[in-house]
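Quarterly update from the structural biology core.
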Amino acid sequence: MYPPDTLEENGYFQWLEHDFEWYFDPVYCNFAHLEDYQRLALPNTGEYMHWEDYHNTCSTLRSEQEFVYFLETLSSKTKRKRIERVVFYHAVKIAKECTHIFTTLLHTGYSEYLWSIRFDKTWYEDFACIYFEIWKLIAKQKMSFKDALDQVKEKGMCSLCRFELEAELDNDQQWWLGPGPMTRHYNIYVAEIDENLTDAEAYKLVMEAV
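Predicted structure, tokenized:
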């Protein structure tokens, strides 16, 4: 789990802050006997006015299955393609197969998925940068992993995974725990990268590894 401060700093809750579906009804807020959850209300968009029609259309087993199909297919077809235009193309193509679900729900699923890959991309690139710097120090300058880790930290790199760096360095004091996750991941995915590769070639392999 990522610390709340890190999530907030990197905009994890931004879409909720700007487009939050629920709100506190100002009329209900005047009633002291109500709990906060009882003051929550949905905006009147007209979507819920005909509840029976909405319920029958949006909550059928078929529509739920299509929503799951939409997200799973979109994820599988764009797993290694972190380009928004590619995601949009596949989303439109898959949506045409989902004929028993509201387009607003498909749009919500698409928006959430798009935001998730933007967030993941930030973390992937950040971890790749850290592991690449460690690899250069070990492969090119023949440092030990801990020395390389310490030097990367001393550089003061603005990294999202600074908590992992600090925990890995502190792990020396808890030797009985065994190697930390960064050590294990480096040994499994990065350590075998050929030291004779150019920086560009090595970085590409590190990016694929993370």
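Strands lie at 23-24, 40-41.
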